[in-house]
Specification:
Strand content: 25-35%
Radius of gyration: 17 Å
Helix content: 25-40%
Bound molecules: adenosine-5'-diphosphate, magnesium ion
Distance between the termini: 35 Å
Shape: globular
Oligomer: single chain
Number of domains: 2
CATH superfamily of the largest domain: P-loop containing nucleotide triphosphate hydrolases
CATH topology of the largest domain: Rossmann fold
Structural class: alpha/beta
Length: 234
C-alpha cells in the first residue's frame, strides 16, 4: 500500500533520514521504533507531505502512485492522515464539532462511539471544548477518536501513547486494533518496545537510518539488546 524508496531528508545541511526503504501492506499494523531524535516524526511528516519535509531524494508511493509532489491536503484526500505527536489544541471548538468536522458524513452517534473507543465517556466530553481545560492525555484521546471517525485508508500515529498514562496502554492497544479492524492501515510510531509489539512488522530507525526491519518481535529484541544498552540513549 505504501512504498518508501531510498528516502533522504535534509534539514539545516544535515541528513535526518538516510536511504530509508520499506513497504507497508494494506491493513497491517506497521511499527516504526526508535529512540528520541532518530527521525521518526520527520518520517511521519514526509509521508503526510508537510511542507518542510519534502524528500531531498527518494520516492513515496501510495497505492501505486508516486505522491512526492502532492501537498498535505492532496494526500489527505487520498485517505492519509497523521495523529501528531503533540496533540490537538483548538480554543473554542467543542469535542463534538471537532469529531464531526473530519467525517465524510456527519454522524453524532458515531462521534460518541469514537469517544467510547478511547475510553472517554461521551456524556462528559462531547460538549467540552478542545482547549487547555483538557489534560494532554484527554486531548490525545480526542485526537485519536477523530482519526477513528475519519475512516482513513492510512493512519500514521506518532507516539499515540504520549501523554496517556502508562496504565492506560491497553486502551491505546485496543484503539489501534479497532482502527485496523475497520480497514485502516496503521503506521505506529513509538520509542517504546511494549507499544511496538502491537505491530505485525516493524522497522527500527536510528540516527536517520533504517537499522533493522522484520517481525515486530525481532525488531523489538534487536532494539532492546542494542539500542537500550547504548550509552547514548540511556
Ligand atoms: P524522533 O521523532 O525520532 O524523536 P525527529 O524526527 O523529531 O525524531 O528528529 C530527528 C532529528 O532531526 C533530530 O535531531 C531533530 O533535531 C532534527 N530535526 C527534525 N526536524 C527538524 C527541522 N525542522 N529543522 C532542523 N532539524 C530538525
Ligand atoms: Mg517524534
Amino acid at each position: 500500500m505504501l512504498k518508501i524508496e531510498n528516502l533522504n531528508i535534509k534539514k539545516d545541511n544535515r541528513m535526518i533520514l538516510r536511504e530509508v526503504d520499506f513497504e507497508v501492506n494494506a491493513r497491517e499494523i506497521y511499527g516504526i521504533l526508535g529512540p528520541n531524535g532518530a527521525g521518526k516524526s520527520s518520517l511521519a511528516y514526509a509521508i503526510m507531505g508537510c511542507n518542510d519535509y519534502q524528500p531531498y531524494e527518494g520516492k513515496i508511493v501510495f497505492e501505486g502512485k508516486e505522491i512526492n509532489n502532492l501537498c498535505i491536503w492532496e494526500r489527505a484526500k487520498l485517505g492519509i492522515t497523521l495523529a501528531w505527536q503533540h496533540e490537538a489544541h483548538f480554543e473554542g471548538i467543542t469535542v463534538e464539532d471537532y469529531l464531526l468536522i473530519g467525517m465524510k458524513k456527519m454522524n453524532r452517534t458515531e462521534a460518541g462511539e469514537a469517544l467510547q473507543n478511547v475510553l472517554l465517556d461521551p456524556k462528559a466530553y462531547l460538549k467540552r471544548k478542545v482547549d487547555k481545560t483538557l489534560s494532554g492525555g484527554e486531548r490525545k484521546r480526542i485526537e485519536l477518536a477523530a482519526i477513528f471517525t475519519m475512516r482513513p485508508r492510512l493512519a500514521i500515529l506518532d507516539e499515540p501513547d504520549s501523554g496517556i498514562d502508562i496504565l492506560a496502554l491497553d486502551s491505546v492497544v485496543g484503539f489501534v486494533r479497532n482502527l485496523r479492524q475497520r480497514g485502516t492501515t496503521v503506521i505506529l510510531i513509538t520509542h517504546r518496545a511494549d507499544v511496538a509489539k502491537i505491530a505485525e512488522r516493524a522497522a527500527l530507525i536510528g540516527e536517520g537510518y533504517l537499522v533493522k526491519e522484520g517481525s515486530s518481535q525481532e525488531v523489538v529484541e534487536y532494539f532492546e539488546s542494542r539500542c537500550l544498552v547504548c550509552p547514548q540513549f540511556r
